[in-house]
UniProtKB/TrEMBL annotation, chains A, B:
GO aspect biological process, one term: lysine biosynthetic process via diaminopimelate
Cellular component terms per the entry's GO annotation: cytosol
Organism, as annotated: Anaerolinea thermophila (strain DSM 14523 / JCM 11388 / NBRC 100420 / UNI-1)
Keyword S-adenosyl-L-methionine attributed: no
One Pfam family this sequence matches: Peptidase_M20
Keyword Metal-binding included in the entry's annotation: yes
GO molecular function terms listed in the Swiss-Prot or TrEMBL record: metal ion binding; peptidase activity; succinyl-diaminopimelate desuccinylase activity
Protein name as catalogued: Peptidase M20 family protein
Keywords, ordered alphabetically: Hydrolase, Metal-binding, Protease
Domain annotation Peptidase M20 dimerisation: ranges: 196-354
InterPro entries xrefs: Cyt/Met_Dipeptidase, Peptidase_M20, Peptidase_M20_dimer
Length: 457, 457
């Protein structure tokens, strides 16, 4: 223990004294836009990512796909045991630009935070891992275990090419455990171990009723209106009772286990924090907080309208009957639903309800997936948090978000854990995205300990 | 009859020989921008309008309002019987500029047409009336009846100051009949008498469920979504059967009379033209054409979504749960509905349906109004078309659009008729707005005959 402490004292000292260097590298990385939804800067960022890995002695390969390239890096360690990091170099669109206090691609430090689009999701996670590797290499000259990185550039647009890549490169990616792209503390500053992810099926519903918009004085009584068709089609999916009306939608929904519910019960009640942060007056379905809210939050599938577009949207009035209308709709899935199943049931539902004119464009999907909270690697990662954070991680068996963890869990047969630098105010996907520099440092300390403990056990 | 013919032969000869002068005056008038939506050139155009009236011996007054000035002109005639012309000197915005073949404020003649923003709507209508007056004054030295003009500068932005002005200046505007700002021929070149206008109540419905957008992985199961609230609120207004569900909405709807139905029956069937022009496959409510289609088109009130806005509307996917959503909604009203009544019933409906969170912003309204097709003045105007057009006007008892005709009908107790220079390809409100010079001449001939017949009967 004394030896271990003195060892980590040196690693921690390295991290503390080199924090500015790592933040500078992260700032340069964030200044390079990489907006997958807008196909902006992806190739450049893939090459930048590869170079950052090469500088740490990784063997790197950039794999082209029909979308953004996948970057792979590997460096052997003292132990052949292998940890695989999954990260992504793409970011969310920066809009609405007017709500940013400083420009999204001009990283700026204020009050102990670094602000930039992608700084938390996910560029800061990647560089904090490189930072931990820098410290281990500086102190030991080699890594305690073999480390692999896979970074994609399409995470924010549903990872279209990741799953086939992982399936066709299972040997290359072979590992004993996987550390996921994100992680961090909750509002109490307690480090959290997020184990399961919901799935997602993201579609655009669109309808076209004429070859041009028409004067609303002409069309209103006799000609079809695309906006109305869309509203009625959406209304057929879910009513104000929040029950999703697609036939068979709930057939494959697994209820949470007693162990999962016990883990949820141990977590703080998020009700007041949500109300304060989002200015929400009350929750859906009569929920008020506690375990029922926590269960509903992650163990229920959703049907969310993410966007609506039709006709005139400017100031004042324009008397037009729209020829086109569309909606972005996001279904979050729980075990054992699949996006393919939802797509099929959605089409059948719309046809059965008389909305054969509503087109479905599939914009991306992921299956839900779980890692066993009692897996030994989970326990190692949980315990490794003790020194940096002053306490072990608390396990969250499932979170509301989605990602391609199922591909790794099912194809590579690895546990997938989280360990990262996020905090509840990080504004991921929103203006003024940021990281806290203190948590950036702690996150790197945690990763260094995980690699060391894993290599030596 | 011989005398009358010879009289109009001289008037017609004057019009034919002075057409170029009138078109030159119209061109100068159109070269002066007067875009009410952009508050561009309104004062200058009001003064130009006043000067054009003064040159014909009218006593003119410019009334300032909180918006654009109202121009009033009056010239006594042989008979004290009075015709009031309603016109407007403002025009639609010229955008999109790149679609104009020649610049919108540089009038150009091509293929027997004059092109310019506002040339049809409504500047050419005004000058063609002045042109008829020029001919009568040249031939007779005085007008056969008293003529009044009222021109506003806010017609294209909902005539905010017209109704209160008319109500507070009823004595000044006192007349026996009113000729409306527009008119013209249909696609067969048959002159049309458009008698009634539907009313309108234009609102924006908006809902806000949180103080910011949230990640859709977080909010979907437990927190309210503004886009869903809006969809459900809209769906409560009208279902796929097209029946408007607002309680009492149809209470004051007057069915068309047998006379009105007979007038509609005499009109050509618009079904095929609509299908071709708009690419519409079928009509609503099982309508296929003929009189039922013509009745539904104008004698049924509507609830039209003119625009929808919420959340992410760009390319690809963004996993966001919107905090705000809004819709532009246009109700077309039929006698005896009123915009005030609809606003009140809409609020009561939303509250009763559980949508107290949906805000209503009133963006403008007009009551519907009718002129009796058997009014003697209507018959006079219809018959006066015989010589210029080779046939009398065909009466359309009601059209789908809206305007402030109700203010004149109700306040001044006058019949309101149309007589004008428009044609179906005039591109009013669109690029390459134009008039046909042959119809400009016929329109002036028609107006001269109306004034003469009215003064002498």
């Amino acid at each position: 223990m004394e030896v271990a402490m003195s060892h980590f004292a040196r690693v921690d000292a390295y991290l503390q004294s080199h924090l500015d260097d790592s933040i500078s590298e992260l700032s340069r990385y964030c200044a390079q836009p990489s907006v997958s939804a807008q196909n902006w800067g992806l190739q450049e960022t893939a090459e930048m990512t590869a170079e950052m890995l090469r500088q740490r002695g990784f063997e790197v390969k950039i794999f082209p796909t029909d979308g953004a390239p996948i970057v792979y890096g590997e460096r052997k360690g003292r132990s052949p045991k292998t940890i695989l990091f999954y990260n992504h170099y793409d970011v969310q669109p920066p809009e609405p630009l007017e709500l940013w206090d400083t420009p999204p691609f001009e990283p700026a430090i204020r009050d102990g935070k670094l602000y930039a689009r992608g700084v938390s999701d996910d560029k800061g996670h990647f560089t904090s891992r490189l930072f931990a590797i820098d410290a281990l290499l500086a102190e030991e000259g080699e890594l305690p275990c073999t480390v692999k990185f896979i970074l994609e550039g399409e995470e924010e647009t549903s990872s279209a090419h990741l799953a086939p890549f992982v399936r066709s490169h299972a040997e290359l990616l072979k590992a004993d455990a996987c550390i996921w792209e994100f992680g961090g503390v909750d509002f109490r500053d307690v480090p959290m171990q997020y184990l399961g992810l919901r799935g997602i099926c993201y579609v655009e519903l669109s309808v076209e009723t004429a070859n041009q918009d028409m004067h609303s004085g002409l069309g209103g009584s006799i000609m079809p209106n695309a906006a109305w068709r869309l509203v009625w089609a959406l209304n057929s999916l879910k009513g104000p009772d929040e029950a999703i009306r697609i036939r068979g939608f709930y057939d494959n929904v697994r209820k949470p286990t007693e162990r999962e519910i016990a883990l949820l019960e141990a977590l703080p009640d998020p009700a007041e924090e949500y109300k304060t942060r989002y200015g929400v007056k009350s929750f859906l379905k009569g929920l008020t907080g506690g375990t029922p809210l926590k269960i509903a939050e992650v163990y229920e599938p959703t049907c969310t309208i993410c966007g609506l577009t039709s006709g005139y949207q400017g100031p004042g009035s324009k008397t037009v009957q729209p020829a086109k209308a569309s909606a972005k709709v996001d279904f979050r899935l729980v075990p054992y639903q699949t996006p393919e199943e939802v797509l099929e049931k959605l089409r059948a539902h719309l046809d059965a309800e008389g909305f054969g004119d509503v087109q479905i464009t599939f914009l991306g999907g992921e299956a839900p997936a779980l890692t066993d909270p009692d897996d030994p690697f989970v326990q190692l990662v949980v315990e490794a948090a003790l020194e940096p954070y002053g306490q072990p991680m608390q396990i969250v068996p499932m979170v509301g978000g989605s990602g391609p963890n199922h591909v790794f869990i099912e194809t590579l047969k690895v546990p997938v854990v989280t360990a990262g630098i996020g905090h509840p105010g990080s504004q991921a996907h929103a203006p003024n995205e940021n990281i806290r520099l203190d948590l950036y440092l702690k996150g790197a300390m945690h990763i260094a300990r995980i690699l060391k403990a894993f290599g030596e056990n």
